[in-house]
Amino acid sequence: MAATPQRHFQKPAVFVCDMQEKFRNAIWQFDKILLTTQKVLRAAHTLNIPIVVTTQNAGKLGGTVAELDPLIADAVVSADKTAFSMMRVPEVAALFPPLPNPAAQKEKASEVVIVGIESHICVTQTALDLLARGHRVYVLADAVSSCNAQEVPVALARLRAAGVVVTTSESWLYECMGDAGIPEFRDIAKLVRETGANTKLALVELLSKM
After folding, report:
1. How, if at all, do strands 136-145 and 51-56 pair?
2. Mean pLDDT per segment of 10 residues, for the chain of length 210 residues?
3. What is the pTM of this model?
4. What are the residue numbers of the active site?
5. pLDDT reported for residue 1
6. Dihedral of alpha carbons 161, 164, 170, 171, sign
7. What pLDDT is attached to residue 157?
8. What count of other Cβ atoms lies within 10 Å of the Cβ of residue 124?
9. DSSP the chain
10. What does the alpha-carbon distance between residue 192 and residue 172 come to, in Å, rounded to a whole number?
11. Per residue in 93-151, pLDDT tens?
């Protein structure tokens, strides 16, 4: 008798880092990372993956862009910060505690995917802090950016060398599922088809500097 299909990721989470209105015209290819972020969040709802959202100094830089509001309404944490790392927000840190040894990491590590800005500052510091706590970290190359395009490949190369998995949104989606037999597969496959043109556009533009 065949085993029941199981997801590959057992403790996934989506981090949305500082996708704020004030940055819309400052960040290289902001509109493209917004498209990818929307796709990732739609998938998170289908797969029931917890979402963590931050803003950076919202009093001065404004809130999260309106396009994401319906997709982050049920975030498990939605917090403002002045620190660059999302992991320095107490509510976030409490959800992803340090795992002191390989046995704990194997059993309890979360698989955290990060989207947002800026790739070389808040995204990098958040990813490194999660790694230091023993969690598995994925950064989507078609969902992160910076004001200066040249910063992005440098940041991604640093993260890759540190142990972060730098991948694409579609690759992450299928790795997260791991099996076409899970109940949500058809809905995710439909989402991938529906967003295919936007995915190609984001890949062409964002990966041109890599």
Report:
1. unpaired
2. 80 97 96 98 98 97 96 98 98 95 84 98 98 97 97 97 98 96 96 96 86
3. 0.96
4. 18, 81, 122
5. 55
6. positive
7. 97
8. 25
9. -PPPP--S-SSEEEEEE--BGGGTTTSTTHHHHHHHHHHHHHHHHHHT--EEEEEESHHHH--B-GGGHHHHTT-SEEEEESSSSGGGSHHHHHHS----SHHHHHHH--EEEEEEE-IIIIIHHHHHHHHHTT-EEEEEEEEEE-SSTTHHHHHHHHHHHHT-EEE-HHHHHHHHH--TTSTTHHHHHHHHHHTHHHHHHHHHHHGGG-
10. 12
11. 999 999 988 887 888 899 999 999 999 999 999 999 999 999 999 999 999 999 999 99
Selection from 6, 24, 1, 3 nearest residue 179 by Cα: 6
Give dist(CA 127, CA 181) in Å, integer. 31
Predicted local confidence at residue 4, as pLDDT? 85
Structure tokens at 209: 């500097």
Contact yes or no for 143/33 (Cβ under 8 A): yes
Measure the CA–CA gap between 177 and 207, rounded to whole angstroms.
24
Rounded to whole angstroms, the Cα distance separating 50 from 149 reads 30
**Cα(53)–Cα(199) distance, rounded to whole angstroms?**
22
Amino acid at 27: I
* Residue 101 neighbours by CB under 8 Å, 6+ apart: none
